[in-house]
Amino acid sequence: NEKIMLAERPKGLPTKDTFRFENEDIKEPSEGEILLKTLYISVDPYMRSRMNDKESYVPPFKLDEPLNGGIIARVEKSQNDAFQEGDIVTGRLPWQRYTTTDGDGLQKIDESIAPLTAYLGVLGLTGLTAYFGLLHIGEPKENETVVVSGAAGAVGMVVGQIAKLKGARVVGIAGSKQKIDYLKEELNFDYVINYKEDNVLASLKEACPNGVDVYFDNVGGSISDDVLSLINKFARIPICGQISQYNKEEAERVPRLQPLLLTKSALMKGFIVGDYADGFKEAVEELGKWVRDGKVKYEENIIGGFENVPDAFLGLFSGDNLGKQLVKVDE
Ligand code: NDP
Q1: Superfamily of domain 125-275
Q2: Residues of the chain where predicted confidence (pLDDT) is lower than 70
Q3: Ligand 1 pocket check for 156: Cβ under 6 Å
Q4: 41 FRET partner, CA 20 to 30 A, in 120, 122, 178, 207?
């Protein structure tokens, strides 16, 4: 049984040396346990923060232990009445080809409702993050201008589409021509900015002649400084992620924001999707309906092979993915 361990805590951008592959025998399930075969592994930017030896909203990964995260797996053997052979489950599981567990915290999923991979993306963590951050903090209204950074990623593309459903004008910021074309042509974003090629501030001024009412921040750094310079009175700013900062060894010193927030009566609020756990069931139902009705589209970037999990993770920081980044491990 192959597994991927945290070999060392990275300084800056992780490298291949951050990870180590190990082998062990598969553990047969004993009474009350199940044996799972991993089918899909989700790689997510927040995992970078868990590689640091620092307490956060999730505890750090332990050195010389397998990394873990959102996984879809099939029950191969069951000694637990709650699970049957063939059941498909999702939950937080270790980066291993096979896992033996008591099944605690796992949720059964149904392929007849949505493709399995959707449960790691649009109907999973990233879809829910977009849903709650935008609707509960951003609260976009008709004809308002919503700007979203990381717009072609798993969270960002759902944010933009929900904002459009609510009648807002949507401006997306992303890092490649392919992504820009996709947002414009497939998702009908009103304006898109390639932050690697365009002058971000000048483009934002053109894109937002009436200012910015909602800024959904996935990336932080200078992109966010530019957007914030254009906020309107009563703007709402959900702070979802700061991917541009995750590999920095020292936090950047930034201008103080209190005068801006004060003079604009603006709301800036950080959130963790788990804050909204009580509402997940209804949110998944609504997101599922939007997906079935074709109102919310989603993309997945699926790489094959367990050996490619580290590369898939690293690709998040170079922007290799359009939509949700997943690794297919087995059939
Ligand atoms: P994405 O699918 O958006 O993948 C990450 C993307 O970030 C890349 O594709 C890349 O796109 C962009 N990126 C990478 N480095 C930079 C940089 N230096 N500056 C600007 N953009 C960069 O990931 P997710 O949708 O899973 O996550 C998006 C954000 O949401 C992350 O910050 C994540 O931490 C956060 N998040 C927060 C949650 C919460 O509960 N608060 C839950 C889940 C995610 P590009 O080509 O455009 O550069």
Answers
A1: NAD(P)-binding Rossmann-like Domain (3.40.50.720)
A2: none
A3: yes
A4: 178
